Amino acid sequence: MEVIETVETLERHGDAPACVIATSADSDLARRAADEMGLDLHPDRPRPRRPHAVVDGEQADIVLAALGEDREQHLVQIRSSGQGLLVIAPEAGFELVRAGLDKAAAGHRAGTWPAAVAIALAVARRCDLVLDEIDDECQELEDRATGYASSPKRRTISRLRALLFRIQETQAAQQSMLAPDEELAQLLGPDQQTMLGRAATAFAANRSTATRLYAMLGDLLGEQDTLVSERLTLVATIFMPLTLATGFFGMNFGWMTDHIGSATAFVLLGVMVPAVLTAITLAVIHRMTRSS
To answer: Is residue 64 within 8 Å of residue 123, measured between CB atoms?
Structure first.
């Protein structure tokens, strides 16, 4: 299948089915391709914001969320009919579209539907590669977060969790819309249904990986919160006997003002007694921690 990316190439193209790649549905290339292929771009509809698949007769409108190298999700819209394939994707998604088309050509799968399914499979595999990178980063964060982690590290963990949450949501949506009992699968032949099942399985695996990493980072943040709470509790416990001693010796009752008038009394009652109370408190905390 010939890949067309310019209006000039489209004008020179014959009647054979082709794949037109445009950056916007409002572009001249997309409008001309839609007219030749008998596709309705629905200009009155808002731009898609999430993955979905709509089947209308022999035509299908598929929207996939592809992960770029920057880990941002880019929407790739595939409009397919028997007369050709119109793919609307940002520049960052062109590489994925070409990879899918090259895969379909290498497997000698001619036709618009095999090409559309091959693009979906390429999107799933790209997400798998990105998740592998995130997995390595998560393992590194877990190793470096032994003990108390700094605030920048905790913010990095939180940002990764937010990214993984978005990934698992989009992968679940894409897995669902490619399911065998959905309209899109019913529109395809047996060979294309098999490829579509492979893409759905890949999206399901991506969802599982994102869910696992999301839970792992959540446990890591929970451990950090527990560690911070323990340290704050330890500091508060250490200051408890010191606060008690300060409050006691700050009271100006008669016996104290009559008997605490020397440096020895100050050292004994003002320094030694609080130090002994603090040591006893630490020993009790240590024993309770070991016993628990």
So the answer is: yes
Q: Tens-of-pLDDT digits for all 292 residues of the chain? A: 678 888 888 787 777 777 888 888 778 888 888 888 877 776 666 777 888 888 777 778 888 888 888 888 888 888 887 678 888 888 777 777 877 777 766 654 556 777 888 888 888 888 998 999 999 988 888 777 666 667 777 888 889 999 999 999 999 998 888 888 777 777 777 777 888 888 899 999 999 999 999 999 888 888 878 777 777 877 787 777 778 777 777 776 776 667 666 777 777 777 787 788 888 877 877 777 665 5
d(C-alpha 98, C-alpha 93), whole Å? 9
As given in the structure block, the two tokens for residue 97 are 């579209």
Token duo for residue 104: 């379909």
Q: How far apart are CA 227 and CA 221, in angstroms?
A: 10
Q: How many helices (H) and strands (E) does the chain have?
A: 10, 6
Question: Rounded distance, CA 140 to CA 59, Å?
Answer: 46
Helix 190-249 vs helix 112-144: crossing angle, to nearest 10? 20
Compute how many other C-beta atoms are within 10 angstroms of the C-beta atom of residue 184.
Answer: 24
CA 132 to CA 154: how far, in whole Å?
A: 21
Q: Which residue has the tokens 């911070």?
A: 228
Say if CB 278 and CB 238 are below 8 A apart: yes
Q: Which residues are CB-neighbours of 119 under 8 A, at least 6 positions away?
A: 64, 76, 78, 87, 96, 97, 100, 101
Are 95 and 88 a contacting pair, CB within 8 Å?
Answer: no
* Cβ contacts of 26 within 8 Å, gap of 6 or more: 43
| Residue 69 DSSP label | T
Rounded distance between C-alpha atoms, residue 20 and residue 7, angstroms: 10
Q: How far is CA 152 from the centre of its chain?
A: 18
Can you give the C-alpha Rg of the chain in angstroms?
A: 32
